[in-house]
Amino acid sequence: MIIEDRAQSYEEALRRSGIRITRQRAALLRILADTDDHPDATALHARATAAGAGVSLATVYRTLAELEAQGLIHKVEFVGEPARYEPADQRHHDHMIDVETGQVVEFFNERIEKLQAEIAAEMGYEILRHRLELYVRKLP
Amino acid sequence: MIIEDRAQSYEEALRRSGIRITRQRAALLRILADTDDHPDATALHARATAAGAGVSLATVYRTLAELEAQGLIHKVEFVGEPARYEPADQRHHDHMIDVETGQVVEFFNERIEKLQAEIAAEMGYEILRHRLELYVRKLP
DNA sequence: TTGACTGCAAAGCGTTTGCAGAGAG
DNA sequence: CTCTCTGCAAACGCTTTGCAGTCAA
């Protein structure tokens, strides 16, 4: 995923929904497009500020909510910390969190996905979304 | 699990740790022992109040924190709602949440557990704890 | 031009905590 | 008798929101 493409596709999707691209939003979209970690709202605000964009934390939250509503980013909430955000245009994956370093590793396992769907189906349900997080520690 | 046994084992565990069994705590332990759903702090406070025990919400939180620290109950946090609590003396299980009714179904799948451990091990990690939640809807 | 946007500061929510008095052991 | 506990109310951290002014289209 090329960063400029991603930033551009964010803009287009927002414009398509009649949402205005303000200076503040453009800056945030650039930052989000350039993100390969899982920053929280405060981190994004700090990055925007560092980049010279005068953006308030309230606007960061409002923009994140908008992007999430449009399905462009995903909110992930790990135990005991503020919500983090990641671009939605990746293959679905789950998260492994190293509790000692805080490092987040993404992983995907087809069989786990299938098993979840089977379990739900057996009980007469379909899965709308799910959350799977492994809180781990490096083996010695 | 017989309720009185559970309430008693809570008391014993707390006493063993030098924690006093006050009137308020005794009432909460009884209520928690009698729980087969997943109440949050407010619900527990309401139940305690209904049972005639004068217990403040602060004490409910403090008691829950103590019980969790002792490993007697587990805190579970579903997306977008206050934390809920469940007795710890059950087989490990995960949760399926019917997003339409709010109903919580517990399930357990050995293969999913194994796969998680394998994935972690492959990447050089061991799992300390994990969280798996399926947000589902009844099939038509 | 005008309606959506912004920053600010205040409010919201669930949860935690400092304090002075109450009560378990 | 002591030391932990309780209730209260205030503070907490993260997030949302009302308002009056600002700016993209």
TrEMBL record, chains A, B:
Top-rank taxon, per record: Bacteria
Q: Which UniProt keywords apply?
A: Cytoplasm, DNA-binding, Iron, Metal-binding, Repressor, Transcription, Transcription regulation, Zinc
SUPFAM superfamilies membership? Winged helix' DNA-binding domain
Q: Where does this protein reside within or beyond the cell?
A: Cytoplasm
The primary location reported for this protein is: cytoplasm
Assembly information from the UniProt record: Homodimer.
Family that this chain belongs to: Belongs to the Fur family.
Name the UniProt record assigns to this protein: Ferric uptake regulation protein
